[in-house]
């Protein structure tokens, strides 16, 4: 997974390029990458990107109609912009987001295939990705102290 500074840079770059633009087509090349099934990829076609933000190390695209694309790139996942419409044809190409101006490819160079995309509808479903993790850049001192002193039950079981 790209580390937090890398994810922050991704969010900033993606915001500049895609906010206000409409996704023409969401193309899933690799079936393992899509982790939700309630909303079909075809439902994204024509949706405008309203914002892009970060939840932990996940990159969230806020679309029209309260739809959200939640990307988790893991260790070897990357975004690659192509100026022309490009089909995902290489083994590492997982997803293609087609826009009028070109294609954004989501790739993963690892053989473990852990990168993921969740397509969710509504703020309630998006909240499930906020798993009580500390938001490092916005945490208060009290939240930081609480997180650092919280009991770790996983370690206790070992």
What topology does this entry show?
Blueprint: H1 4-18, E1 25-28, E2 49-55, E3 58-63, E4 67-72, E5 77-82, E6 93-99, E7 102-108, E8 116-121, H2 123-127, H3 141-149, H4 153-157
How many runs of DSSP E, i.e. beta strands? 8
Let me know the CATH homologous superfamily: MutM-like, N-terminal
Unreliable runs? none
- The shape, in one word, is globular
| Helicity level | 10-25%
| Arithmetic mean pLDDT | 88
Count of alpha and pi helical runs: 4
CATH class: Alpha Beta
CATH topology: N-terminal domain of MutM-like DNA repair proteins
The separation of the N and C termini measures 26 Å
Describe the strand arrangement of the main beta sheet, using strand numbers: 1-6-7-5
Order of helices and strands: HEEEEEEEEHHH
CA radius of gyration is 17 Å
List the defining traits of the structure above.
4-stranded antiparallel beta sheet, 31% strand, 158 residues, N-terminal domain of MutM-like DNA repair proteins, alpha+beta
Briefly summarize what is shown.
With 158 residues, this protein is of the alpha+beta class. The chain contains four helices and eight strands.
